[in-house]
Each structure stands twice: as C-alpha cells, then as structure tokens.
User: Fold this.
Amino acid sequence: MTSKAPDGSVHDLNCLTIAELQQHAYTRMDKQTRDYYNEGADSGSTLQENLDAYKKYRIRPRVLRDVSKIDTTRDIFGFKSSVPIGVAPTAMQCLAHSDGELGTARASRKMAVPMGLSSFATTTLEDVADASAEIPNVLQLYLFEERAHSLKLIARAKKAGYKAVFLTVDTPILGRRNLEIRNQFKLPPHFKIANFAEEEEPALGDETTENSANQAKGRSKAKAGSTAGYTEGGKRVTPTGPITFHTHAANPTLCWENDIEWLKEVCCPEMEVWVKGIATAEDAILAVHHQVRGIVVSNHGGRQLNGALATLDALPEVVEAVRGQIPVHVDGGIRHGTDVFKALALGADFVWVGRPALWGLAYKGQEGVELMLRLLSDEFRLCMGLAGVTKMDRSGFVARL
Ligand SMILES: Cc1cc2nc3c(=O)[nH]c(=O)nc-3n(C[C@H](O)[C@H](O)[C@H](O)COP(=O)(O)O)c2cc1C
Ligand SMILES: CCCCC(=O)C(=O)O
Assistant:
C-alpha cells in the first residue's frame, strides 16, 4: 500500500520507519540468516549500546534561519553523494534476498550513495562494479595471511575501477557469536563466496560442498601444504578439516608496520587505503601517522569485542585526535535521520549503515534497500530543516544529556 505525500514522494504505508523495516524483515528470513545478521558478540551489549548512544544526545534547534534550500549532499571519492550515508559492507547478502549485492548496488546507484562490498560477498566484485556504474565502489578487505590471495583480489578491484579499500582491522580474531555457533551457521550450497569461487585456494565458502569437493580432488589447502591457519591461545592452528571463511577473515598477524605499508604499496595510487574498525584516539593518531586516507570508526556492529565503546562514544576522541587531517566516518547503530545528524554534528564526515540494508533486502530486494535509503535520507533532510541547518557542519548542534 502506498500514498503520495504533498511533495510528490511516495510512502510505503506498511513501512514508514527503519524499525518497521526490521519487523518486516524478521518474518522474511529463515532463523539461521536472521540470527547471523542480527546478532552481536557475546551478550550483545555493545550492539545495544551502539543504538543507545544516540539517545544520549539531543539536538539544539536554531530558528529563523531560512531553511528553504537544504543541501544534504557530501563529496566522497570524487562523487557527490546525495546524503552523507553509505551502505556498509556486509557479507553474504544473497542470504537475505536473491537480488543480493546486485540489489544493494542498484539501490545505492538509484539513491546516489556509495556502497561498500564485503570480501565475503555472494556476488563478484566485477558484477557489483557493473551494477554500480558511476557510483564509487569501495572494497572491504580482510587481508589474508597469504598475501597472494589478497593481491589477486586487489588487482581485480583496481581493474574494475574500485576507488578505495577499507581494510577491516577489528577482526584479528573472530568475535564469539553464540547464535552462529548454536545454529552451526553455514552458507547454503547453492551460494558461493563469489570472489573466491574460482580459486582452488583459499577454499572459502560453504564448508560442506566446496571444500569437500576440493578435498575429494586431493587439493585441500592443508594437503597442498600451505600455511593456512590462525592462532588460538598462542598456538598455531592449521585446519586439517574443511577450511571456512571464518578462519580466513581473522588474521591475528595484522599490524601497522607490515600490513598497512604493504597494502598502500599494492593499492596506491589507483585505490585509497582506509582502515575500518578504529575506536580510540591512539589508533587514530597511528592511522594518520601511517598515512591512510581515512578512518571508519566502527566496532563491526557490535559483532567483535563485546564491551567495547559504542561507536558514537568513541567518535569525539577520534575526531579530536585526527584534527581534520583525514576524513573520519562512523558506523554502528544508525537507524534514524536524526542519528546521522548527531554523528555529523559530533564530527563525522560520513556514516555507513549495515543491518538496515540487509533488512531492506529481506523485505523487498533492491526496492527494500531503496526504501531504507529513502527513509533515512528524508528523515535526515527533515532533521536539518527543523534544526535550522542548510548545510551540515559540526558546530554546536547537539548537546549531551
Ligand atoms: C551480517 C553482517 C555481516 C557483516 N560483514 C562484514 C564484512 O564482511 N566485513 C566488514 O568489514 N564488516 C562486516 N560487517 C560490519 C558492517 O560493515 C558494519 O560495520 C556494521 O554492520 C555497522 O553496524 P550496523 O549494522 O548497526 O549499522 C557485517 C555486519 C553484519 C551485521
Ligand atoms: C567471517 C566473518 C565474515 C563476515 C563478517 O564480517 C561478519 O559476519 O561480521
């Protein structure tokens, strides 16, 4: 059911808020997918605090400031994004809807906002780049211990015209996600971790089919004598059984000196290197020191270190430490246009939303992602107008309770 608003925009009367979108999505996903998408690490307190942090701030509305022309746009990677909101990289979007990452890419294009593509997407980075057309693409990277695999991915991303890589740095070890463990989460066999589907190694993706097929052919990673593995409790663990994407996402050896310098060498100048998952002033200063091109303040949507600061609470110290030398973005818990406003007023240059895009996909595929972006954009514009702001800057518009 739809209705036309006085300004000509069309409302989906069944879904007027992100909270309603979440409810619709809930009934459209199977339990395994729902739990995987929605859960946080351990008790989920950081996941909750990411949301609650926004409630600690109030907007200080200014009046009599002629808000007849409001400019919500923001330049990013040489592109004018319609709003300072992008779709954060989230893995395996085909679980939500058959449109998958292509649906997200097309919706992002339609709404003129950038999209981050997960390394563990169920669509290839080339297909997503095609669907995105003029929209700048960002590839989220998990840097594998075996650099050859990362190198291949980076070369493909460059060729496909990706503008930046976001190196995820909050995942040296995978957080504990109890529902994922209980459900024995697996990617169903008809989906592929697409960017690695052609590779013999790493045998990423579905543990039961792809890997058993590899093993049957006598070329499992362990048999090939590679160095696949991870470190647990100080001990080196080399998986002898099927290799899963879980063991590859987490790279405990990641560090500034070796990896950031190397990554810059292999990505630049075609692609900018950013770090995603900074949560302290100390690391923000190191990021500037190592000359990354930008920071995403993130705690992985509360899926990694439970008990970590909410991202909005970490944002001010990062902004202060960076002193405008590089852009600071933030993600985690953004569910309202007013949240976007608050994050920007506290110094973020741009925000990214994760789960709401997955809920949009689950609700109506591409159309649902468009709806999600439209809801947030409309709310953001309305918030700016009512707060007396025609172009966002960071001064004085929010107060902490
Ligand atoms: C289901 C799911 C999968 C995710 N996959 C990735 C990923 O592959 N790489 C990554 O860097 N972050 C990943 N993230 C984290 C998001 O990029 C983002 O930081 C987070 O979702 C923001 O929080 P929000 O969901 O509250 O908006 C994932 C998050 C979710 C919920
Ligand atoms: C192995 C994890 C890959 C996807 C991810 O980052 C997440 O589920 O949070």
